[in-house]
Fold histidine kinase.
Amino acid sequence: MASGNEFMDTVLGLGLVYWGRKALDLPTRLPTWDRWLVRAWQPAAVIIVLGIVVGGPVVGWFDDLFMAAVLAVGAAVGWQLRAYRPAFWVGVALAPYAAYMLLGVLLRLTGSNPVRDFDGGGNLEGVLVFWTGSLFFLARSQHKTLAAEAQRRLTAEQEQRRIESQNHTLEYEVNQRTAALAQQTNALRTTLQELQTTQSQLIQAEKMASLGELTAGVAHEIQNPLNFVNNFAEVSTELLEELAEERARPTRDLGLEAELLADLQQNIQKITHHGQRAASIVRGMLEHSRQSTGERTLTDLNALCDEYLRLAYHGLRAKDKTFNATLNTDLAPELPLVEAVSQDLGRVLLNLFTNAFYAVRQRQQAGEPGYAPTVRVRTKHAGDEVMVQVQDNGTGIAAEVQQQIFQPFFTTKPAGEGTGLGLSLSHDIVTKGHGGTLEVASQPGAGTTFTLRLPV
C-alpha cells in the first residue's frame, strides 16, 4: 500500500485543473478544452486507486506523468489565452512548479531524486504550492475584475441600445407629431384664408351699408332744393306767360308788368340759391365718395359733425317717413382745427350718429308713453385735445356688452341689420389712425354717450 504522498501530485493536479478552469474562464473562452479537462478526474482516480492498492515506483511514475500532463495542458491553454491578462499570472504561478516537476522526472531517469531527497520535509514543494495558489488567487481576482468590467460594458451597451431604441421611438413619435402639426397647420391656414375672405366680404358689406346710408341722406337732403327749383321754375313759367299776354294787349298795364318782372327776378334768385345749395351737396357727396388717401389736412370738426348729423338723420327718415327726432347741437365756437383724414372721421361720425338714431328709434317703437327721441352732439376744446360727444336717450347698452362693443364682428343688432364692423373700424380709425381715443358710457333704458378725443 502506498502512502498519501505517493499521489499528492495527482491531487494537486486536480486542484490546478479546477482552479485553472475558474481563473481562465475556460467554459466560456475554450469550451472544447474545458470538456476534456473536466474528465481529468478519471485518470487521476485510476492513479489514486493504484497508489492505494498497488503502491510502488510505478505509481510514482504515473503520478509524475499525470502532473506533467496537467502542466503541459496548462501551458498549451495559457498560450492560446496569452492575450487574456489572468493567463499571464497562471503561467507565472505554474512555471516554478513545472520546473520542479521536470527536474524530478529527469532525475528519476537516473535512478535517484536528489530534489525530493533534498526536500525531505516537503518545505520547498509547500512553498511552490503556496506560490502557485497565491498567483492562482490573483488570476482569479483579475478574472472577477475583468468579468465585472465586461458586465459593466454589457450593461452600458444594453443601456446604450435601450437609449437608441428610445431615441428611435421618440424620433418616430416626433415625426408623427410633426406630420400631425403640419396637417393642423395646413388646416388652420385654410381656415385663416377663409376667415380673411369672409372678413373682406363683411368689411365690403359694411362699406356698402355705410355708402347706402350716406346716399340716402344725400338724396333726402338734395330733394328739398330740387323741389324749390322745380316749384319756382313752374311759377316763373306762369309769370312769363302772363307777362307775354299783358304785352300783347292793345292797352298795356305798366304797373302789372313791373310787378310780374319783380316776381320773376325774385323767383330766379331763389332758383339760383337752391341750385347752388344742390350743387354744394353734390360736391360734398363727390368729396366723400372718393377713396381716402390717408393724407391729413386741417379739418373743422364742427362743420363735419353738423353735416354728418343731418346726413344720418335724413338717411334714416328716407327709410322711415314716420320717424322724427330732436337734434341738439352744442358746438364750441372757437374749436381749433385738427389734422385728420376728413373722409375717415366722416365715416366714424356717420357710424356714431346712425347708431344713435337706431337706438332712439328702437325705444320709440317700443311705445313708451311720453318718450321724445333726442340725439345730441357736443364739441369741446380741453387742453391739447378736442372732444366730440354723441349722446342719445335710446335703449342703452348693458355693462357686459360694453366690454365687447369695439370687438370685430360683435353686434347687438338683429341678423341682417349689422355686420359688427362699424364700431370696430371706427375705433381703429380713431386710435390707430389718429392717435385718439373712443370711449362708450351707457345705462340700459336711459341712453348712450360715445366720447371721441383727438390731439390738437
